[in-house]
């Protein structure tokens, strides 16, 4: 049997980085997905067979004989207690890294090794060393701030947990072939995906895997998640500057700045917390006429502008991000970076009354800089499954 799972990417409307240090943040799922499909193969004689990971978009395939996995991981290769996800110990991570190194990734793709390590950890912890094949495809740019690492961890954890019989989909959703899951199952997927994010990010807050698992728009603060019922649709243009960066390094950089200036950075994080709190209550207001919608959008824009200023203060803006801010401001549009920054993606709030003509002009101007624009639906589905 083949299990096909999908999990969405996300945008962070307010609060990235500060959320790692305990502030509130607001994030929403977008309709760009990572798909993981899984086929289990019958165990060969004497434990033969292999685990194959096929990264389709990258045209890369990796395989490990089950016997090699067992030899390298020993006890850790035994199926874990599925209901209680365990973290990957540093010894286990070192053994997994050696298994990944066997494949000698090209220098230009070395950033993939963290994703492959997360994949091997999740596979062997959830299914043990059973032979099987995982195929991953994604609509998301990798390492650009749209949560590809979380969508990868969530779709993979969900597919593996379904194959292990630990979770079960609840039937077709809204007449589509995609099936949704109940609260307890989603919680388990989220907990396992968080372990995968830890391998990729080092110190994730958990917001990306949470919004990818549950979908919708959420306010997230360590230990708590509130589902936001958006009063009116929020329209955003996403611009990928195509400047590559790495979330783990950027998160570590902010933490270093915080340890050099603890009081000052605590005030910055506190200000971001207020921005996220205010933004989340404005999002939930239902505005009924054009004047009310405009006033709501003006408040959102101002909060995004303030958040961008504080992100610059944390040291995570970039000249390419500043170029997007200037280009959109010419059309009176407000933008902020989204995700870890340092390049990657920028959000631009699109007011309800903005004409398509102006939107096309802004997009064309951004594309002239070599950037790539995405028009996305905000606040959609989370983790879902489709049976093959
Ligand atoms: N489809 C995928 N296949 C393999 N690894 C992936 C995939 N998507 C994400 N990753 C891993 O996640 C990393 C990018 O995560 P990160 O730096 O957090 O940026 P973001 O989550 O914003 O895309 C990649 O370098 C890779 O290790
Ligand atoms: C910077 C941060 O707030 C979000 C990172 O998102 P992304 O990996 O850049 O998509 C880190 C986190 O919350 O774990
Ligand atoms: Mg990430």
Written overview of the protein:
There is one protein chain. 43% of the residues lie in helices and 20% in strands. The protein is globular, with a radius of gyration of 21 Å. The chain has 2 domains: 2-227 and 380-387, Ribosomal Protein S5, domain 2, CATH 3.30.230; 230-375, Alpha-Beta Plaits (2-Layer Sandwich). It is α+β, with helices and mostly antiparallel strands and 388 residues long. β3 and β4 (60-65) form a beta hairpin. It has 11 helices and 12 strands. α3 packs parallel to α4, α4 (148-163) packs across α6 (207-214) and α8 runs antiparallel to α9. The strands form 2 sheets. Strands 1, 2, 3, 4, 5, 6, 7 and 12 form an 8-stranded mixed β-sheet that branches. It has a 4-stranded antiparallel β-sheet with strand order 9-10-8-11. The chain has helices at 66-73, 90-101, 112-127, 148-163, 183-201, 207-214, 247-260, 262-284, 290-314, 319-329, 356-368; strands at 2-14, 25-40, 50-55, 60-65, 132-138, 217-221, 224-228, 236-240, 335-337, 345-349, 372-375, 384-387. Bound molecules: adenosine-5'-diphosphate (ADP), (3R)-3-hydroxy-3-methyl-5-(phosphonooxy)pentanoic acid (PMV) and magnesium ion. Adenosine-5'-diphosphate binds at residues 34, 55, 111-112, 114-115, 136, 138, 142-149, 152, 200-201, 246-247, 339. Belongs to the GHMP kinase family. Mevalonate kinase subfamily. GO terms for molecular function: ATP binding; metal ion binding; mevalonate kinase activity. InterPro entries: GHMP_kinase_C_dom, GHMP_kinase_C_sf, GHMP_kinase_N_dom, GHMP_knse_ATP-bd_CS, Mev_gal_kin, Ribosomal_Su5_D2-typ_SF, Ribsml_uS5_D2-typ_fold_subgr.
């Amino acid at each position: 049997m083949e299990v096909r799972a999908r999990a969405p990417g996300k945008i962070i409307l307010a609060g990235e980085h500060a959320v790692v240090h305990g502030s509130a943040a607001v994030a929403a799922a977008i309709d760009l997905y990572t798909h993981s499909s899984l086929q289990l193969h019958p165990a060969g004689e004497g434990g033969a067979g292999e685990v194959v990971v096929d990264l389709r978009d990258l045209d890369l395939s990796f395989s490990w004989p089950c016997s090699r996995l067992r030899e390298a991981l020993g006890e850790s290769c035994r199926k874990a207690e599925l209901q209680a996800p365990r973290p990957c110990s540093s010894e286990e991570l070192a053994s997994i890294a050696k298994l990944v190194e066997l494949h000698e990734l090209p220098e230009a793709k070395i950033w993939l090794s963290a994703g492959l390590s997360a994949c091997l950890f999740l596979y062997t912890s959830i299914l043990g060393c059973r032979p099987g094949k995982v195929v991953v495809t994604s609509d998301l740019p990798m390492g650009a701030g749209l949560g590809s690492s979380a969508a990868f961890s969530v779709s993979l954890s969900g597919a593996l947990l379904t194959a292990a019989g630990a979770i079960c989909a609840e039937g077709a959703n809204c007449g589509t072939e995609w099936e949704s899951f109940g609260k307890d199952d989603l919680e388990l997927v989220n907990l396992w995906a968080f372990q995968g994010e830890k391998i990729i990010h080092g110190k994730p807050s958990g917001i990306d895997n949470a919004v990818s698992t549950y979908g919708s728009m959420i306010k997230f603060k360590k230990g708590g998640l509130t589902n936001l019922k958006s009063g009116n649709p929020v329209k955003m243009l996403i611009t990928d500057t195509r400047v590559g960066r790495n979330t783990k390094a950027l998160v570590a950089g902010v933490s270093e700045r915080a340890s050099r200036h603890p009081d000052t950075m605590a005030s910055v994080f506190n200000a971001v917390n207020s921005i996220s709190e205010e933004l989340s209550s404005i999002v939930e207001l239902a505005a009924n006429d054009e004047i009310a919608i405009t006033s709501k959008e003006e408040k959102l824009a101002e909060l995004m502008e303030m958040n961008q200023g504080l992100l610059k203060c944390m040291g995570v803006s970039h000249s390419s991000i500043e170029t997007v801010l200037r280009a959109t401001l010419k059309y009176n549009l407000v933008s902020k970076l989204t995700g870890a920054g340092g390049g990657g993606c920028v959000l631009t709030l699109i007011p309800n009354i903005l004409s398509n003509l102006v939107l096309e002009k802004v997009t064309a101007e951004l594309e002239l800089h070599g950037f790539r624009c995405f028009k996305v639906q905000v606040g959609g589905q989370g983790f879902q499954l489709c049976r093959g």
